[in-house]
Amino acid sequence: MNEQENDYDVFKTVFKQYKRKEPPPDLSNVVDFEKPQKFHEWGVVKCDYGYLSCKDGCLTGATSSNTNSSSNCSGPNIVTQEMEKSNINCKTLGLKPIVVWKLFTLKSLPGLIFISNPFTSEGQQMWIKNCLLKYPTKPNITNLRERPDSENSEIMDDHPIINTGTEKFDIQKARKLRWTTLGYHHNWDTKVYSRDMCSPFPESLKNLSVFFARILGFSSFQPEAAIINYYHKDSTLGGHTDHSEFDLSAPLFSFSFGQTALFLIGGNSKAVFPLPVFIRSGDVVVMSGASRLAYHGVPKIILTEERSSWESAVSNNPDWKQFNDYLKNCRINMNVRQVWLSDSQVCNR
Question: Are 188 and 148 in contact (CB under 8 A)?
Fold first, then answer.
């Protein structure tokens, strides 16, 4: 970046402001979807349940090629009936009934959709276990094993552990985990996807992503790649855009668990002042439309002092303590995207 461009890097300035430890940053202006009294000030719009579309049409035009208005959205009742036919429903996905979901958008960020923790506590535990026990295993790639054919598997055994009652979870090794890639593997060096670097996309995460996509009206979305990021209390994620995918009209789906993230999202250049947003455990963020290519990042992880939303079922699950100990200082984020144009052949190796 040259000196002239750096003068306009507002994103970097705000990022440093929230990243600093001393003096601690002022968090009073961070958008908090649990504080409705400040929605007007922040430009937050709460969505109407009827068609999961806002009353003033703020979800309209969420994608570049489709709209989400009530006139052409099938609505949650119809979609739910269709999904239940294939036994993919809220209960099996660890979700609360759709009727109690709380959806929001921001007037300043068209296409950004925020769903405030639609997961049950048991559901959160299920997805957290998937991220720590199933997804980091072969043939998926992690920072501890950067090729699918590598013999080095530090975190756990090569094969997924499913209902065996013998989960092997070492919290010290888990803390070394930084990322896992699923499906088409993102190349961190070239930033390019290749059809040759692919492993089967997990059926469980595919079902979850497709369910949200259909509910929100993204009927053609196909989950083909995912990056799971593992944050620790001092972790950050610098400002960037997700532009490696070939279909940039398809939305990004982000599912968060564990400690709270302070999330920054701006515009299509770093000259746009970013908006700070709290993302708590269970929250879902969808970046579509104009927000799909917005600069975003995570300057700070905030450790919660309150009872966590994943903990209410702990007393009924004695094996959960090892995971709960990990989450006291950590955050997990699953982000799912469609890589190829919708008429391209999907990897099924």
Answer: no
